[in-house]
Design brief:
Elements (H helix, E strand, L loop, with lengths): L1 H9 L6 H14 L3 E3 H6 L26 E8 L14 E5 L2 E3 L1 E7 L18 E3 L10 E7 L5 H15 L7 E7 L3 E8 L2 H10 L22 H12 L3 H41 L6 E7 L17 H19 L2 E7 L16 H5 L3 H27 L10 H13 L1 E6 L10 E8 L9 E3 L3 E3 L23 H9 L12 E7 L11 E2 L7 E11 L6 E2 L5 E12 L5 E13 L1 H9 L1 E11 L5 E8 L4 E8 L19
Parallel strand pairs: 1-22, 7-8, 7-10, 10-11
Antiparallel strand pairs: 2-12, 2-14, 3-4, 3-13, 5-12, 6-16, 8-9, 13-15, 16-18, 17-21, 18-22, 19-20, 20-21, 20-23, 23-24
Helix pairs in contact: 1-2, 4-5, 4-11, 6-7, 7-8, 7-12
């Protein structure tokens, strides 16, 4: 029974989700019986063969020939107001110009009543579960504040505009606030309380300068570069103008490469953040609207004329961009990019931007104007493309950022969901164009439709080359899987619940110690206290692969990190359990749950944070819980109990 429940939950079935979720949560919390992961690994032999085949999610493979495409459609009148009351017969849909039958149709409105999510059962002190109690219906909205790509001056402008918005925020809307530096941070989880949002905007949003930006403070003035200085002095450097020009050219190429390196680091961090956000939001049913405030949009999908190989980075970025937007679309996430700089004018017209640079170089002014216009066009194209690929819309050349939030949330909360099964079932990676129109009387009202314009017919689990290679040009190559796991275990990051589990955290004794438990970082010093971390998870949530000799193999990693409030890693312990199970051990493993114990030391004074994760290594899925140490440090010590033996 549990295996079918889990399959429905993982596939996010369109019906019956609340009951399914309740069943899963109670299965984890009540735990009818456990088998120690250590015991499972220790008792494994390879004598008997099993004929059962397992999917990457650890459950029995069910092969079907149906692949559904979900498209959210916003319909507005000439004044930009949402249009309600349409039905499936009012729409017609085509893929690559071939008509498609609409299988499921739903209307969603901001005024719809929101169902309550399943209530969590009462758990003992010190026990936590990686379940986010968000109601299963309604729309979720995420305000993403991008400090990585935004000058500090523009960050201040965004904060002012958000304060204006939260003063009249609709209390029916569920909003979360995330931040982006060199990683993704949760500043506030989903809430419908405008007072909480106001407090976060006023007290948690601080402007941070990114050292990867050419103009981090947003002054509009760039320092004079070496190549510009060399170009100014070239006539005086040598009688050989060719030699002087060679020096200038070499410096220009060096500076272009340096700028490209910093740019690509921002691209990598931005892509990692959106991939992580898509993974996190995929655990929630329904539509999610991400309103992305940024002062630049670095995912350059155009060639860079400043580099020798101007198309190399463009090709890499296009592949990574495709991977990211596909993941967002599959997670039913619409992106609304908002240019945090407001209405833009070329900085060359600012009095602060004139002076020695333009006085000594007559061509610099025209070049900077051209560069500004080209940069604006490229960034706006990226914004439009990202919005088009995910079903959102872009906002730029406007100082009304609060109004942009209003419009984005209104548009993303009033929409129709159309579901169809493509007549072309090939998963060949080709781009499939989606075209939706209105029929009958609705077609005569000049209504405006917004929706994602297509998708790539990739296999759901396929990983492209862009997902296994870094888009950065530096020495450190980071693949997307490593980036996802690394980010998931970072202090303050969104906590994925790919794997549902509960964890008990209790002191091992009342004593303050000096012996450190765990792989201590240099930063952990002074008096410490030891904690027992006890994991319990569903055995069927892990990937076990049937080998030719009849063994089932898999690997589970248990992680516990200790962080300072600023994100500094203080201590860490990670244990990997590799499973090699014969038929009898496999049966016992699947009939029980998995438990595992770790001990770790944390500072006895001051605040610190436990970040606890359980990873299914073959599928790269992870569940994470973050707990302030202060919530468990006062609890009674753990009572030693013998592990349950499998029957």
């Amino acid at each position: 029974m549990i295996v079918h429940t889990l399959l429905k939950f993982k596939d996010r079935s369109l019906s019956g989700l609340p009951l399914v979720l309740i069943a899963v949560i109670w299965s984890v919390v009540l735990m009818p019986g456990s088998i120690s992961a250590q015991d499972a690994a220790r008792t494994a032999t390879a004598n008997d063969a099993s004929e059962e085949t397992q999917s990457p999610s650890g459950a029995t493979v069910l092969h079907t020939g149906t692949r559904l495409v979900v498209v959210d459609v916003e319909v507005e009148d000439a004044n930009g107001h949402p249009v309600h009351g349409l039905n499936a017969q009012d729409f017609h849909l085509a893929e690559n110009d071939k008509p498609q039958a609409i299988h499921n149709f739903e209307e969603h409105t901001a005024s719809s009543s929101v169902e309550r999510g399943p209530e969590l059962p009462q758990m003992p002190p010190g026990t936590f579960i990686d379940y986010n109690p968000v109601p299963p219906t309604g729309t979720l909205n995420i305000l993403l504040l991008d400090a990585l790509n935004t000058p500090t001056k523009d960050q201040g402008f965004v904060r002012e505009q958000l304060l204006e918005y939260v003063k009249h925020a609709d209390p029916r809307m569920r909003i979360a606030i995330f931040g982006l530096t060199d990683r993704l941070l949760v500043l506030q989880g989903f809430t419908s309380d405008p007072a909480i949002l106001k407090d976060v905007v006023e007290h948690k949003l601080t402007s941070r300068s990114s050292n990867l930006l050419e103009d981090p403070d947003g002054s509009g003035t760039d320092p004079v570069t070496l190549s510009e200085t060399a170009a100014t002095l070239a006539p005086q450097l040598s009688d050989s103008s060719a030699g002087a020009q060679s020096i200038v050219s070499t410096l220009q190429q060096f500076e272009a490469g340096q700028q490209a390196f910093q740019f690509q680091l921002r691209v990598q961090y931005t892509l990692d953040a959106f991939n992580e956000l898509a993974h996190y939001l995929s655990n929630f049913q329904g539509r999610k609207n991400v309103i992305w405030f940024s002062g630049s949009f670095p995912i350059n999908i155009q060639p860079d004329p400043n580099l020798d190989n101007s198309f190399a980075i463009m090709e890499t970025n296009n592949a990574a961009f495709r991977e990211m937007t596909n993941l967002l679309a599959r997670s039913q996430v619409a992106v609304y990019p908002v240019d945090a700089r407001g209405l833009m004018v070329a900085p060359t017209y600012d009095a602060a931007g004139s002076g020695h640079k333009y006085a000594s170089n007559a061509t610099a002014f025209g070049k900077d104007i051209t560069a500004f216009n080209s940069s604006q066009a490229t960034e706006h194209q990226t914004m439009d493309q990202m919005a088009e690929d995910t079903g959102g819309r872009a906002f730029y050349n406007t100082n009304g950022l609060a109004e942009a939030v209003d419009k984005a949330i209104a548009a993303g909360s009033n929409y129709y969901t159309l579901t169809y099964s493509p007549s072309d079932r090939r998963q060949d990676g080709a781009y499939r164009r989606i075209k939706i129109g209105l029929s009958g009387p609705a077609a005569t009202n000049k209504l405006q439709l917004s929706y994602r314009q297509g998708y790539y017919a990739d296999e759901p689990e396929k990983t492209s080359e862009a997902a296994t290679a870094s888009t950065a040009t530096g020495a450190e190559m980071i693949n997307s899987t490593d980036a996802y796991i690394r980010s998931a275990m970072s202090r303050g990051a969104p906590a994925p619940n790919d794997i549902l589990f509960k964890v008990s955290i209790l002191p091992t004794s009342d004593a303050i110690e000096n012996t450190i438990g765990g792989k201590a970082a240099v930063q952990l010093a002074g008096p410490i206290r030891r904690y027992k971390v006890k994991y319990v998870a569903l055995s069927r949530d892990f990937t076990l692969t049937l080998q030719s000799d009849g063994r089932h193999t898999g690997a589970i990693e248990f992680k516990t990190f200790i962080f300072a409030p600023d994100g500094t890693l203080l201590n860490a312990i990670e244990k990997t359990v590799r499973l090699e199970l014969n038929s009898e051990s496999y049966r016992r493993f699947m009939d029980n749950n998995v438990d595992f114990d770790l001990e770790v030391s944390a500072p006895a004074k001051g605040e610190s944070y436990l970040r606890i994760g359980i990873e299914d290594i073959p599928s790269n899925r992870i569940g994470v819980v973050e707990v302030p140490v202060s919530t468990v440090s006062h609890l009674a010590p753990a009572i030693e109990e013998p592990s349950l033996s499998p029957h």
